[in-house]
Amino acid sequence: MTALPTAARDREIRIPVDSEGQKAALDSFDGLLPDESLVIVAAAEPRELLNLLQVERKGTFEWSLLEAGPATFRVELTRRRAERGASREVGEALAWDHDRLDALEHRAFERLEAGDAAGAGAAWAEFAVGLKRHIRFEDEILFPTFEERVGMPPGAGPTAVMRAEHREIEALIEAIGRALAGNGAAVPLRAELHALLGQHNMKEEHVLYPATDQALAPAERDALVARIQAS
In Å, what is the CA distance from 26 to each residue of 33, 37, 85? Predict the structure, then answer.
């Protein structure tokens, strides 16, 4: 896993889940420069905001879940270096999310090394939410699409291996979370995660994602990324 810097979180705003809140969020997003981020905080999942972004700011944003309720939802919006209306591809969208997650994981252990246990736990919680969501949309959306297009039965071929690795990764996420909470040594478990996740991500980025993009027409790739954002 390569640790990359995350986009600066210039602002965090709390919005009501109504038209006024959506307008405030859109106005704040429009004030971002490329690669800058904004964290939206709401009492319910801001799905209508995502719908508006997909229609009115198509192709210009990344939508990253940081906290998934039940009382509070936090979503990071990042401004992409793309023109409004730009089409997306599976490879670029999901590789970007790999890099974002790598940076969160790095931040958690950087704070742990600095003696900031609370900061480490907070960063790890965001990493865990993001990686579990990434795994879920691959299992439920990406892999079935790939299998259907290439004529591969579910439970066979590379996606079967990927699903098995997902279960191992999920177990390590939980184990490291418990260790960071004071119930074990996190660093050795981190080494296991790096070994597994590094190889897993490489196979996805160099084999599975390009093969999926190749199997889909441009409009289908774009629609698939929109489904993944909404998952």
Answer: 14, 13, 16
Nearest to 85 by CA among 229, 226, 227: 226
In angstroms, the CA 150 to CA 152 distance is 6
Map tokens 């999926």 to a residue: 212
Q: Which two tokens stand for residue 39?
A: 């964290």
Query: For the chain, what is the largest distance between any 2 Cα atoms, rounded to a whole number of angstroms?
Result: 51
Torsion sign, CA atoms 224, 98, 126, 27:
negative
Write out pLDDT tens, residues 58-107: 999 999 999 998 999 999 999 999 999 999 999 999 999 999 999 999 99
**Cis upstream peptide for 46 (omega within 30°):** no
Contact between 87 and 59 (Cβ < 8 Å): yes
Whole-structure pTM value: 0.93
Residue type, 217: A
Q: Pseudo-torsion of CA 131, 188, 207, 129, nearest 10°?
A: 0
Length of the chain: 231
Provide the total of helices (H) and of strands (E) in the chain, helices listed first: 9, 4
Distance, in Å, from the CA atom of 82 to the CA atom of 62, rounded to the nearest integer, reads: 11
Per-residue pLDDT tens over the stretch 170-221: 999 999 999 999 877 999 999 999 999 999 999 999 999 999 999 999 999 9
Q: ω before 70 within 30° of 0 (cis)? A: yes
Q: With contact defined as beta carbons under 8 Å apart, do 104 and 126 qualify?
A: yes
